[in-house]
């Protein structure tokens, strides 16, 4: 960030007379550009669901480890008992040792006579870690235990993938259909029954249950579409047998799902249920995935990351269209079960260099706003947008994985979710002269600075979220924002509190770089990094209000995100 101009607080009636209320900001770069933002707090535009409160990761066992538990605590604090976590590999065979894109619980094995042996110790440890920290399961039923896998003889069960390997090397015996569908159903029934007994019926009724992950691609599913429908039906039958009112859905396809999703939607509406023989399959929510496509652009300076948000938003757009086109399902709740700037949280590479810093946080703010907007356009029932990012235990500091924290230190992106947690339940009218139109954001990479806004109301409290995003991860001019508010009521003054994330604020990554990028920070350095990651509220001078109107001038650096609470 190159610095700021002085910001001015102004009343709607006497802008120039408010010089005595100047806020001392640093001097801005001369190439800043003007942006006008208007908010009408008296003009509601509809409810704003907290769709951001869903997270997930490939590696379930990290939830029981030191940094995983610390991060779960931070997630649970966002909205206690309303945050959900989804994890792959919860039924895999193994000893519970965590690894990249792998996990295991040994929940199901068989004795020498082929009789089932159930062991819930590790699954209980994982779910306990969630619930103890105010987080609830979005419970993925998968993958296939070794004793139930129909993989050809000689197929390795566990994959040998590691960062840098080709993605398809994650394949193994774990991603095959069951060799016995009745045993598969019984496994799911016994697990659900155990969860009800351990955690209570009322608790488990709040969970989401879905089967598998991305069954429309070979990396996660080695069967046919029909075999997946069958695997899905038997699993759902097992859940419902143990808890008839359980919230079940799926299929968490990659992207909008193409022909596979079309076939699945037809099957759950009008197909013959493989497990029950009835028409259709219980479907309480629907899920698909949406990913961006960043790339590394080489230039004379060495190069930079160019994000591909358009690809992310196109997948959301197409997914909503598919569901809205099925009359029986168009009002069903939708969870975008993975929604991210790209597709592999554990994959390194220069195209993923956006992850540690403020490109990730500004992308998150800009993309979530458009996903909310798309849900309104298609009139679908968007319930959740799940960020596939957690943490990777005992890895190098700021190693460049897609995560929310590194070695127990929160990354800037997590502070955007803290801002979301402060938004009110009702949207109000807001617009920005520099917000890129939705259709332009979907069409292709844009070279424009996207300075956008969302605003909410909670009683007399108004929240204004503003971001400054650009698809290119390059330095650029600040936005010189003139914020004009109306509908603030009869009070003559309003308290204003600002939360900010940018290159120098609430950003431990830049502090770590200034330290010399130590790979073994001592306890004093750790405390400094921990403090630098925290987003501190800044109380601005009281805002003068005249006839319900007020104004505020402020700068916002490129890749900055700010939240103003006016009360």
Molecular structure report:
With 567 residues, the chain is an alpha/beta fold. It has two domains: 9-47 and 425-566, Sandwich (Immunoglobulin-like); 54-420, TIM Barrel (Alpha-Beta Barrel). It is 26% helix and 26% strand. It is built from twelve helices and 24 strands. It has helices at 66-78, 121-131, 181-199, 201-204, 225-242, 258-270, 309-324, 358-378, 412-420, 438-443, 508-514, 523-532, and strands spanning 9-11, 33-47, 54-57, 83-87, 108-110, 116-118, 135-141, 208-211, 247-253, 285-291, 295-297, 304-306, 333-340, 381-387, 405-406, 409-410, 426-432, 450-458, 461-469, 479-486, 493-501, 538-544, 550-556, 561-566. The protein has a ten-stranded mixed sheet with strand order 1-23-20-2-17-18-19-24-21-22. It has an eight-stranded parallel β-barrel with strand order 3-4-7-8-9-10-13-14, surrounded by six helices. Helix 3 (181-199) packs parallel to helix 5. The longest helix has 21 residues, at 358-378. The protein starts with 8 loop residues before the first strand and ends with a strand.
Within CATH, the superfamily of the largest domain carries the name: Glycosidases
Q: In which order are the strands of the major sheet placed?
A: 1-23-20-2-17-18-19-24-21-22
How many distinct beta strands?
A: 24
Tell me about the biggest sheet? 10 strands, mixed
Beta-strand percentage range: 25-35%
Helix fraction by DSSP (H/I, runs of at least 4): 25-40%
Low-confidence parts: 1-29
CATH architecture of the largest domain: Alpha-Beta Barrel
Rg over CA atoms? 25 Å
* Main CATH class of the largest domain: Alpha Beta
CA distance, first residue to last residue? 29 Å
């Amino acid at each position: 960030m190159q610095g700021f101009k002085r910001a001015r607080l102004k009343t709607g009636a006497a802008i120039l007379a408010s010089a005595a209320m100047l806020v001392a900001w640093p001097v801005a770069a001369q190439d800043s550009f003007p942006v006008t933002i208007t908010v009408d707090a008296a003009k509601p535009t509809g409810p704003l669901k907290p769709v951001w409160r869903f997270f997930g990761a490939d590696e379930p066992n990290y939830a029981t480890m030191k940094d995983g538990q610390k991060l779960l605590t931070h997630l649970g604090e966002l909205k206690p008992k309303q945050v959900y976590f989804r994890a792959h590999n919860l039924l895999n065979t193994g000893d519970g040792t965590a690894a990249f894109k792998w996990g295991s619980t040994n929940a199901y094995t068989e004795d020498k006579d082929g009789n089932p042996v159930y062991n819930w110790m590790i699954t209980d440890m994982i779910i306990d870690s969630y619930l103890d920290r105010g987080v609830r399961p979005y419970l993925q039923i998968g993958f296939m235990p070794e004793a139930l896998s129909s993989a050809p003889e000689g197929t390795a069960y566990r994959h040998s993938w590691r960062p840098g390997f080709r993605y398809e090397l994650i394949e193994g015996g774990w991603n095959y259909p069951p060799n016995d569908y009745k045993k598969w159903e019984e496994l799911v029934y016994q697990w659900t029954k155990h969860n009800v007994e351990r955690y209570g019926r009322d608790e488990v009724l709040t969970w989401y249950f879905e089967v598998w992950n991305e069954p429309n691609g070979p990396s996660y599913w080695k069967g046919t579409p029909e075999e997946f429908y069958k695997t899905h039906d038997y699993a759902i039958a097992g859940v419902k047998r143990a808890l008839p009112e359980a919230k079940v859905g799926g299929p968490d396809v990659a992207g909008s799902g193409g022909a596979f999703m079309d076939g699945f939607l037809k099957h759950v509406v009008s197909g013959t249920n493989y497990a029950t023989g009835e028409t259709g399959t219980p479907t309480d929510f629907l899920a698909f995935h949406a990913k961006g496509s960043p790339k590394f652009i080489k230039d004379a300076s060495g190069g930079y990351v160019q994000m591909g948000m358009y690809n992310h938003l196109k997948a959301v757009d197409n997914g909503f269209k598919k569901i809205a086109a099925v009359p029986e399902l168009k009002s069903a709740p939708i969870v975008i079960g993975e929604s991210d700037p790209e597709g592999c949280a554990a994959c390194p590479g220069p195209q993923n260099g956006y992850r540690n810093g403020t490109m990730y946080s500004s992308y998150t703010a800009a993309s979530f706003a458009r996903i909310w907007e798309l849900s309104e356009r298609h009139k679908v029932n968007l319930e959740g947008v799940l960020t596939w990012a957690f943490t990777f235990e005992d890895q190098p500091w700021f190693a460049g994985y897609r995560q929310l924290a590194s070695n127990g230190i929160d990354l800037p992106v997590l502070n955007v979710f803290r801002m979301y947690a402060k938004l009110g339940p009702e949207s109000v009218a807001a617009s920005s002269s520099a917000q890129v139109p939705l259709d332009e954001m979907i069409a292709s990479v844009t070279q424009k600075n996207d300075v956008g806004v969302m605003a909410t109301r909670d009683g007399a409290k108004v929240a204004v979220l503003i971001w400054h995003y650009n698809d290119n991860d390059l330095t650029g001019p600040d936005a010189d924002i003139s914020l004009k508010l109306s509908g603030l009521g009869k009070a003559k003054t309003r308290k204003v509190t600002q939360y900010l994330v940018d290159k120098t604020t609430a950003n431990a990554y830049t502090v770590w770089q200034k330290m010399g990028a130590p790979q073994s920070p001592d306890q004093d350095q750790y405390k400094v990094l921990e403090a630098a990651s925290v987003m501190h509220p800044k109380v601005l001078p009281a805002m003068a209000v005249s006839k319900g109107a007020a104004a505020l001038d402020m700068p916002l650096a490129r890749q900055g995100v700010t939240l103003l609470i006016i009360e």
